[in-house]
Amino acid sequence: MTPDHQAIADLPRVKLRLGRLVPRKSGLEQKGVDSLIVHDLITLAQERAVETMFLLAGDEDMCEGVAAAQRLDG
User: Fold this and answer.
1) Greatest Cα pair distance in the chain
2) Which of 9, 48, 51, 73 is the residue whose CA sits 20 to 30 A from 27?
3) What is the pLDDT of residues 23-70, one digit of tens each?
4) What is the distance between the alpha carbons of residues 47 and 53, in angstroms, rounded to a whole number?
5) 67: which DSSP letter?
6) Sign of CA dihedral 6, 11, 12, 13
């Protein structure tokens, strides 16, 4: 974790998800972050642990996980 990552992780009411780094021919690639975030979204929705969530992502893969969490809201 870099100092910048730590600063973000230390913010109140913020959960930082970093995943894992996997070597590729072009360098390192981060893997597993989408799954961690979707797991958090669904768990928090099931437990009704939050009233509002904000997700900033440019990855369309997140859409199904967000929709599943929203369906749990009823």
Assistant:
1) 45
2) 9
3) 999 999 888 888 888 999 999 999 999 888 888 888 888 899 999 999
4) 13
5) H
6) negative
